[in-house]
Write a structure and sequence with these properties.
14 strands; 14 helices; globular; single chain; six-stranded parallel beta sheet; alpha/beta; 392 residues; eight-stranded mixed beta sheet
Length: 392
């Protein structure tokens, strides 16, 4: 990506993220910040502020608290040209005193680091509205609020304080970006400059799945046809009952799930799907290794629950699947209505029938057509749209 394509003109960026930089799967923040850094911006990325109340009974949460404490006391790290700061936070945001302490800790650390890095007139790019505490500390020349999920709907989040911060921050932002129609509608009540921008994909990378090459070593031995799901395997998003029902209905199909178990929802119990003999949980893959997975897939599946949380989700995997040429069957999420080349379904019977049709009608020509159409939904295209909205 060239400097001319940088939507903030190569200015320094302070980004407050919604999870950690070394997250097991790449998200919107990884894609956009990496591209800004590659096109001339110096980027300071501030990792998750620990907004979700940790579960003291969760070994995963306890390990994460310990890791974050250690990293929060350490020097910032440089990852692929991006300076990554792990902030010290107390994960008890429902208490006003704790919120004030966390705000002071964040302002103090970031102000000193920005001065050390020599950032001038930076852009403040917040994926969470708690970035508001940096407004007076940084005096940013440009403010972006990037709303990619209904975070207030997630279990363990103090919704009242989150939504109050969101109202304040969105009104201060020069641009609000929303990744789902429901989020855009809510944001338009708070801001006059809202860009609806659903998640897109590294289309050039995923299109390589159409080229001859290796199939993922764990996937290849599994019986065809292989139906693939890529993403966080979390019980607050994935409909385990639906997935188990479809797997039981078609024992001659293989269902391969690629991604971390319980990310963002550590109480996830995968036993309902792990008990199915034709469902295989294959673990996470790096972004660059996903085309080898999709090269061996017969179809892409998005078996999400219907909930307040998923009503505001546009899954990252939509255009990844399509760029790889796969037929796609998905739960009828509101954000996916009208999206080309996706079949929306409700329940086990509809899902099985849609997958049967997809398998019967698929061809190399159809895969190429899907991939070609998905090329209009790349991160480069999205950055150009953000640049135009900022110039508005």
């Amino acid at each position: 990506m060239s400097p001319a394509q940088n939507p903030v003109g190569g200015r320094d960026v302070v980004c407050v993220g919604f999870n950690d930089w070394d997250n097991e799967g790449w998200t919107n923040q990884h894609h956009l910040m990496s591209r800004l850094a590659a096109s001339g911006s110096r980027v300071l990325f501030i990792e998750s502020l620990g907004l979700r109340r940790p579960s003291l009974g969760s070994g995963r949460d306890l390990r994460r608290i310990g890791q974050r404490l250690k990293r929060g006391l350490a020097r910032p790290q440089v990852r692929n040209g991006i300076t990554v700061l792990s902030p010290l936070v107390v994960p008890a945001h429902s208490h006003a005193i704790v919120r004030a302490l966390n705000a002071w800790l964040l302002r103090t650390r970031v102000r000193g680091l920005v001065r050390q890095l020599g950032f001038l007139d930076p852009v403040l790019w917040g994926y969470v509205p708690q970035a508001e505490v940096l407004l007076d500390a940084l005096h940013p020349g440009l403010v972006v609020y990037h709303c990619v999920d209904d975070i207030a709907a997630q279990e363990g989040i103090d919704a009242a304080s989150f939504l109050a911060a969101e109202r304040r921050f969105a009104r201060r932002a020069d641009l609000v970006i929303a990744s789902a129609p429901a989020l855009a509608e809510r944001m338009r009540e708070l801001s006059d400059n809202v860009l609806y921008a659903p998640n897109v994909a590294d289309t050039s990378l995923f299109a390589t799945a159409l080229e001859p090459g290796p199939i993922d070593a764990q996937l290849e031995p599994l019986t065809e046809p292989r139906i693939v799901f890529v993403g966080a395997i979390a019980a607050n998003k994935v409909d385990f009952e639906l997935l188990a029902g479809v797997a039981a209905a078609r024992r001659d199909w293989t269902f391969a799930l690629i991604g971390p178990v319980g990310m963002g929802y550590p109480q996830t119990d995968v036993s309902p799907i792990a008990a199915q003999p034709n469902v295989h949980l294959l673990g996470s893959r790096a972004q660059q290794d996903l085309p080898a997975v999709l090269r061996g897939a017969a179809a892409g599946l998005i078996p999400y629950l219907h909930s307040r949380l998923t009503a505001s989700i546009f899954p990252m995997k939509v255009y990844e699947y399509l760029a790889a040429g796969l037929p796609v069957v998905a739960t009828g999420l509101p954000a996916l209505e009208g999206v080309e080349d996706i079949v929306l379904v409700d329940g086990v019977d509809q899902t099985v029938a849609a997958l049967e049709r997809a398998l019967a009608e698929d061809s190399p020509e159809r895969r190429r057509a899907r991939s070609d159409a998905a090329m209009n939904h790349s991160w480069e295209t999205r950055l150009a749209e953000i640049g135009a909205a900022l110039a508005h």
